[in-house]
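It would be a great kindness if you could assist me with a short task in structural biology. Thank you for your consideration; the sequence and its tokens are set out here.
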Amino acid sequence: MKEQADRKSTAELTREYIDSHPSIRDCISKDLINYSSLARQIMKELNLTHEEAILAACRRYALKLSKTDFEGQIISLFKESTIELKTRICIVIAKNDWMVLKNLEDIVKKILAEKSVCQIIESSSAITVMSEDKHLPMIQKAIGGEYIQRVREDLAEITVKSPSRIEDIPGSFAYISSILAENGINLVEAVSCYTDTIFVVEKGVVMRAFDILSKIIEKSSA
């Protein structure tokens, strides 16, 4: 840590520490923190000296954060958001192989023609298909058993629909997901698609998750 301190100034290290701890950053932006205690904590964890320099850096950064009210923008955004719930959702996780996408082409067209739920997420190692339970047999058949890695049924999909300016407001996705996490809600899948923020959860927690998200929107509208 001493070598790192030699390369970076105390102010830089202090800002990096604050940015890596969202809860501390949030409290600083609202002027809800004891800066002397924070400075001593930073000294201890980063093995730094010069408490006064760290304290000054904390206060300077606080002034900057107080002028950037991202949370206010997020709350304003959710005033205009709505929430939807769909049950009986399934997820199929398959190997990332071009044959999987090819085999899914006709099935996806059919599902979308019925105006049913269908999302496909591709990562470097897997392809995830989210749809309704009733479509699971034909999705599995189309993909092929040799490509399927995992199947989950009887899930629920909660969608928060927001205005298009959500794309320009930092932290809106993290704001919602962090509140769900703080309340013990495990997200089976989570994806943001333009104005839709989609969370897939297990059946046993769906009503609690829906209630939490509803309260976020209701509180924003109050």
